Amino acid sequence: MTVFAVEYVYDAESAQTRDAARPAHREWTAKLAQDGTLLASGPYSDGAGALLIFKAADEQALNELLREDPFAGAGAISGTRTMAWAPVTGQLADHAG
Question: What is the pTM of this model?
Answer without folding.
Answer: 0.92
